[in-house]
């Protein structure tokens, strides 16, 4: 087991985006009002922040949460998933970016969608309250660009678009419902910095609440075509699987049934056999991003509480993975609740995630797994910052990734603005690049 030295250095080019106008007048008014109540020297610092959105240097100085000065410009990425609502606000720093604020809350937006086909009122209310917190955080700084996305729960629910309209009305945030292809590419963008440079590729998997993405990252594709050779989105996640089979008392037979249920969805990955052949002939590793694999890593390290710095970039060998899977499957519900890296909020979901992971690693076997506590939000941030000329491209990444430009243009929104059209690609479940 080796902790990755590049665990906090995202530097991957997913593609450029269009410039975004300055933050909405509502947010600016809130920022100005806050500045009026502060000492004059602080107001002077913030008056120097007047700049064109996304400019290479904002000229501002902003005191952060721990007393250190930040310079901006600031970029924000929000991911409203089936299980979680997450926000990152960051500023570019040389080749990388620095997170200045974040938020994460389990909202279980997709609870019951598998059975009823729609988002419940209780789930919507939980998500709305979390999004209000995100809105408040977005108002504390002048955000140059932002992208706010919703994934499988809203895609699958019959009232998903109605819910997004409710969010726009009650919270003032316009969320973009991204398609599965965009989700797979954003996951690849966020996790690509953890790809082992000594290998020829990796099997990236992102186990979500309502869907799971599998991406073949291939270093032999060349500079212009990018790393993604093929991808698939499986309509199964930890929430949907746990609701189908139960997540409290999971017997060995129930666990195996969940694994087989996931395997039935692999037909959606058109490169399934080709990837298996490549794994036999070339050096690959698994690259996992999800609450399942980060929980697995936290339990493996016996952490007294979850610590991203210890988990992100962690290497686990096949024997370590097998031992951890056996240990987790042997835990009853009370033991899972008592574990500090699982807790009550994940205790009924973690074994469903393990079943998805088991199906993936048995289908595409690799000797090593690298754990990534990063994903869609980091991919969005890198994409937005690249569009404004920040960060430096990795030498093995494409400079002109044309097929992703439309996704970037379609998803960019103002943090507090409700106008503008949504553009995107047709929905698909998988494909070759």
From TrEMBL:
> What segments bear the compositional bias annotation Basic and acidic residues?
42-53, 387-419
GO MF terms here are: exopolyphosphatase activity; guanosine-5'-triphosphate,3'-diphosphate diphosphatase activity
User: What top-level branch of life does the organism fall under?
Assistant: Bacteria
- Please give the PANTHER family that the UniProt record associates with this protein: EXOPOLYPHOSPHATASE (PTHR30005), RETROGRADE REGULATION PROTEIN 2 (PTHR30005:SF0)
This chain's protein is named Exopolyphosphatase/guanosine-5'-triphosphate, 3'-diphosphate pyrophosphatase
Segments for region (Disordered): 32-64, 387-433
Keyword Hydrolase among UniProt keywords? yes
Which classification does the entry list for the species? Answer: Bacteria, Pseudomonadati, Pseudomonadota, Alphaproteobacteria, Hyphomicrobiales
Q: Identify the residues that the record assigns to the Ppx/GppA phosphatase N-terminal domain, covering every copy.
A: 89-385
Bias class Basic residues marks the residues at 54-64
